[in-house]
Amino acid sequence: MKSLVKSTVQLFIALLLVLHTTTAASGTVLYVTPTPETPCPAKPCHTLSQYAHNVSEYLTTDTTFVFLPGDHSLDTDFNISDISSLAIVGNTSSFPKLTSRVVCSNTDAMVAIANVSHLSIAALEVLSCGQNNVERVSVRVHTVENFRLSSFHLSHSSPLHIYNSAAWLEDNSFANNTGTGCGGSLKTERSNVT
């Protein structure tokens, strides 16, 4: 039974990633490299911190961030808002092992996503984000009509906060996280979560 569930989850993730690729064909695909020296399959291709410092230059109505394998350092908040569709996809060639990791070099840093109609995050791990400020979280999702989170791992970070959103979570893990007044590693407010 366990292998059937695992196979079903893997098939779902593969389908989700195919849908992202199809959707991304009409939008912008941005590659995220762990270092400026890492070869990229296409351009634009920058580090996560480079995108975070200049995010408005790259976002379109339909944006997909594809994380190449490796540790992606984040030294500042990564704020994305007011777009129709956003996909954040880690390396899927090694699935189910997650090899694309966001590591906050500034432990106050966080990922904040707001006012997005469709958001999907898959095959990504987030480490050491949002720890040093009790009002911060590692990933904040605010006012998202359709949020899908799959094969996501949050570790040694402050909680994932989902606010005023409809969310579907599948095959995720939350380990060794700090509950900054939230009481755990997942906090939801005014949201429908399944």
Whole-number mean pLDDT: 80
**Major beta sheet summary:** 13 strands, parallel
* Low-pLDDT stretches: 2-25, 179-184
Number of strands: 13
Into which percent range does the helicity of residues fall?
10-25%
Order of helices and strands: HEEHEEEEEEEEEEE
- Please count the helical segments: 2
Radius of gyration over alpha carbons? 16 Å
Helical/strand content category: mainly beta
Question: What would you call the shape?
Answer: globular
Beta-strand fraction estimate: 35-45%
Terminal CA distance reads: 22 Å
Secondary structure layout plus pairing:
Blueprint: H1 2-24, E1 28-32, E2 45-46, H2 48-53, E3 62-67, E4 70-74, E5 78-89, E6 100-104, E7 111-127, E8 139-155, E9 160-163, E10 166-170, E11 173-175, E12 186-189, E13 192-193
Parallel strand pairs: 1-2, 1-3, 3-5, 4-6, 5-7, 6-7, 7-8, 8-9, 8-10, 8-11, 9-12, 10-13
Structure, explained:
The protein has 194 residues and is mainly beta. It is globular and about 40 Å long. The chain starts with a helix and ends with a strand. The longest helix has 23 residues, at 2-24. It is built from two helices and 13 strands; from the N terminus they run αββαβββββββββββ. Helix content is 15%, strand content 45%.
Quick structural gist:
The chain has 194 residues and is mainly beta. It has helices spanning 2-24, 48-53, and strands at residues 28-32, 45-46, 62-67, 70-74, 78-89, 100-104, 111-127, 139-155, 160-163, 166-170, 173-175, 186-189, 192-193.
Keywords:
mainly beta; single chain; 194 residues
